Amino acid sequence: MELEVRGVTASPGSQAQLFSGRRKPVQQDWTSRSWAVQNPCPPMVPPLDLRSIVGSDDEELDIVPENLPAPTGQCKLKYEQYKTEMKEGYKQYNQRNEEKTKSIITHQQSPRDKKDEQGTSPSIQSPEVSKNDLTTLDRKALLQHGYASSPCPAQLSTRKSDAESVAAEKKKQTVAEQMMIDHLSRAVISDPEQNLNIEKQGNDHIPPDSKRPPLRLRKRTLHETKIRTHSTLTENVLSHKVQFDGRIISRNGRDACRELFGFFFTNDGSLTIYEYRQFGKNRTNVLPFIPKNVYHHQCGRRKGKQYHLGDFHIGATLTFLSSDHPSLPQSIKKNTLLRFRITNVDQIALDSVKTVSMAHEEDIQEANDRLVFKAIQDALKEKLQKRGVRILTGLEKFFQQLDKDGHGLLNKTDFKQALKIFHLEVSEKDFESSWVILNGDGNGKDRVDYGEFRRALLGEMNEYRKSFVRKAFMKLDFSKTGIVPITDIRKCYCAKKHPQVISGHSSEEEIKSSFLETLQAACSKADEVSYGEFEDYYEGLSLGIVKDEDFVNILRTPWGI
Predict the structure, then answer these.
(1) What residues have CB less than 8 Å from 143, skipping those under 6 apart?
(2) Using the 8-state DSSP alphabet, how is residue 323 labeled?
(3) Which residues face 277 on adjacent strands?
(4) Are 557 and 152 in contact (CB under 8 A)?
């Protein structure tokens, strides 16, 4: 029987040679040679010598292309710009490191200060210590300034700002479209002039002795509807408008974080405000917040005057009577006035409208009022730079204790007492001038809103900075209640990028504990933080920071916004 194993023909005799282990070496050698002849294979692979291998990167570095073209002028210019930017960046990095080292040395607490703080209670503290020396809370609050020296990467911040700009423009477009739909379709049907016109037509055809009800009480059909009324608006008329963004001045988190968009129409001087609501990721809704009408100033020097084009600029405040708008939320209707702060204006539309509209000159008296407040703010600025958090949060808590009825109004004696306790010296002349300005309309019957008083005398951060404060709070307020538990703040606060953590001078937990301690000191409840308290904290930090970008870094870096 013939057997074939891997191409080798085997006979019964050779079969014994293959499977028999007791063969002579000569026979085994012959068998291997015959196997090699039948199945040729490459010789044995030589051992790999790693030392003889040269990396491809090294080879590429040694090879220089020939006939390399000379760099163009544009390439040389870009290279010089890059070189200059790198030098400036390195110089700024060294300067920041030096300032950080100095601040660490300066802010270290001496044993004498520790002994004074432990042995002396706040109530019997000497005036010199309260006025000039920094307390432990002041030093811990100043640690947040360290984030200003560690900005976010330029590419990441640019990408975030671009995405935010696109989302904001999409919201504005959605609100503008809904406003046009409301006033071009619904306004015609609901115009009161429709009833007058139909009633007149019905009286012409119905005899006086008829028992049929008037036509205005019956169901109106399309043929009985007047298409064009006296107040009918067209798309061309509505196009002459100025769009603006705004927020409600409130310590209630839900109201302060509402996304509001307004429109001022130049044809009749009316305005309307819409609210943009988002439910989840995809569901949105746009509803009227303040209906379209002609409105007037409700306080200040211009009380009773109609709003005009000059009243719409960033930082301007519009006031409305809460009683005139029954549909407002109950939290807003508790206050007599609704204060609406303009945060952004469509400057292109405003400039185009100004060319065809008469420019209103600024009131001289209002300009003088601003100068009075500016002088007081400049006098107190130096005292508030490093103690802003403690003084602003303490003032707010003190005002709330004095406000027994909860209306937010205090008299002159209360304000003088507060300024004296917190060592904010204001001359009698400046105080009386500011009091006359704030209480000029007499709405509060010799009482003034303490929020307005504090903003007037101590100033406030600009709307650009406040927008980032609201973004940070909205990120923390998952349930949209306006109150954030302290546990959620601890979870979301990240101190990994703090300069002292990076350099090893402090741990991440130490920086986080310092922040939470200073924030809890500003709160009325130890286990939760309201929007007003959160805003007061960063309002105090803002007083010691000159550049807007440095303040934005203080919010962006730990909160990731």
Answers:
(1) 107, 498, 500, 511, 514, 515
(2) G
(3) 285
(4) yes
| 378-420 pLDDT, tens digit each | 888 888 887 888 899 899 899 988 888 878 888 888 999 999 9
Tokens (6 digits) for 301: 């020097």
Determine which helix (DSSP H) or strand (DSSP E) holds 247, and give its type and residue range. Answer: strand 241-248
Phi and psi, residue 241, nearest 5°: -140, 165
d(CA 494, CA 512): 8
CA distance 561 to 553: 10
Distance CA 354, CA 242 (A): 10
Pairing of strands 409-410, 483-485: unpaired
Beta strands in 346-458 (DSSP E): 409-410, 448-449
Bridge-partner residues for 9, per DSSP? 4
The pair of structure tokens assigned to 369 is 């009022």
Cα separation of 343 and 317, whole Å? 10
CA 306 and chain centroid, separation = 32
Half-sphere exposure of 1 (CA within 13 A, CB side): 2
User: In which residue ranges of the chain is pLDDT below 50?
Assistant: 1-32, 35-36, 55-61, 105, 107-131, 202, 356-361
* Helix 412-421 with 388-402: angle, nearest 10 deg: 150
pTM: 0.67
Distances (CA, A) of 491 to 76, 521, 558: 49, 19, 11
Beta carbons within 8 Å of 345's beta carbon, 6+ residues apart:
242, 243, 244, 245, 312, 313, 314
User: 288: which strand partners?
Assistant: 274
Query: Is residue 320 within a helix (H) or strand (E), and if so which, with residue range?
Result: strand 317-321
Taking alpha carbons only, the member of 130, 84, 15, 87 closest to residue 420 is: 130
Give Cβ neighbours of residue 116 (< 8 Å, ≥ 6 apart).
Answer: 129
Placement of tokens 């930082």 in the chain: 315
Give the model confidence (pLDDT) of 35-80 as tens digits: 445 555 555 666 666 555 554 444 444 555 667 777 788 788 888 8
Measure the N-to-C terminal CA separation of the chain; round to a whole number of Å: 85
Q: How far is 63 from 116, CA to CA, in rounded Å? A: 72
- Which SS3 state, helix, strand or coil, does residue 324 take? helix
pLDDT of residue 530: 92
Distance (Å, rounded) from C-alpha 138 to C-alpha 135? 5
Q: Residues in the chain, how many?
A: 561
152's tokens: 């976010």
What DSSP string runs through 471-495?
HHHHHH-TT-SSEEEHHHHHHH---
Tokens at 532, concatenated: 């007003």
Q: Assess contact for 6 and 39: CB atoms under 8 A.
A: yes
SS3 string, 150-172, reads CCCCHHHHHHHHHHHHHHHHHHH
CA distance 335 to 251: 12
